[in-house]
Q: What sequence folds into this?
């Protein structure tokens, strides 16, 4: 089965937040994305709420529960106590733990599982007890030893950070190097029984090569480029284009 598309709504929320007005509606765009065939919605609420506001989460939860009960809600973020409470209140199908500091502009690296063993053991234990699927953001070249720790700590999935691959959009030779790295890391993770997601700076142009190199991908979460494309083509047509690029 091709990888499932989860549409990240952060960029839509950022546009909404320019004014003290309710449009574009984050939930409304989410609904159109799901109607067009997205398999899930992703948000990455940051502590300053500059994109997604904490108050957006119940609305998105209700949208999926009431209108699209077979789709998934994925919440990404650093596991602060505030974040964990938000997750427990919202009950997403998947939680993606990301090692971002509050002042970080965007995500730019995966976890060092060895250096964050205690924190992640506590957090993953708590989330698994709550019944959530847990994915952990991982570097595109994460070693077998690091991935083994993620597995031992109870992670179900890793999300491979594809930023360096996305940055090679005008350099085919470099893109090939990054794709090989991702493929090898994906195979290492798969050999440990981890499922594999991917995300960051994925585009409709760079998706086909990614899924060829990582046929085991379970899910991709895409926001920035997909929202940019939606300005040109509309959200529904854009979701159809991304699904086609994934092989649906
Ligand atoms: C973990 C990851 O790659 C995404 O969550 C991405 O960082 C989106 O976050 P922003 O939209 O805040 O950049
Ligand atoms: N996990 C990655 C994500 O949700 C979206 O990243 P981007 O497409 O906005 O770079």
A:
């Amino acid at each position: 089965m091709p990888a499932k598309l989860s549409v990240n709504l952060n960029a839509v929320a950022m546009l909404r937040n320019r004014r003290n007005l309710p449009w574009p509606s984050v939930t409304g765009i989410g609904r159109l994305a799901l109607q067009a065939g997205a398999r899930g919605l992703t948000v990455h609420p940051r502590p300053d709420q500059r994109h997604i506001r904490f108050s957006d989460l119940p609305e998105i939860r209700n949208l999926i529960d009431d209108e699209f009960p077979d789709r998934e809600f994925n919440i990404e973020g650093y596991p602060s106590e505030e974040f964990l409470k938000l997750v427990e209140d919202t009950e997403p199908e998947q939680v993606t733990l990301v090692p971002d500091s509050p002042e970080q502009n965007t995500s730019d690296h995966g976890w060092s599982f060895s250096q964050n063993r205690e924190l992640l053991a506590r957090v993953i234990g708590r989330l698994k007890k709550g019944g959530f699927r847990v994915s952990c953001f991982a570097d595109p070249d994460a070693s077998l030893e690091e991935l083994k720790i993620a597995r031992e700590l109870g992670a179900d999935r890793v999300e491979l950070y594809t930023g360096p691959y996305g940055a090679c959009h005008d350099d085919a030779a470099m893109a090939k190097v990054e794709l090989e790295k991702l493929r090898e890391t994906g195979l290492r993770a798969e050999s440990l029984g981890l499922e594999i997601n991917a995300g960051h700076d994925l585009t409709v142009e760079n998706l086909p090569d990614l899924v060829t190199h990582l046929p085991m991908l379970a899910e991709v979460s895409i926001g920035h480029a997909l929202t940019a494309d939606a300005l040109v083509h509309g959200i529904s047509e854009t979701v159809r284009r991304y699904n086609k690029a994934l092989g649906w």
User: Anything to note?
Assistant: The chain has a mean pLDDT of 97. The longest strand covers residues 72-77. Residues 4-246 form a domain with the TIM Barrel fold (CATH 3.20.20.70). The radius of gyration is 17 Å.
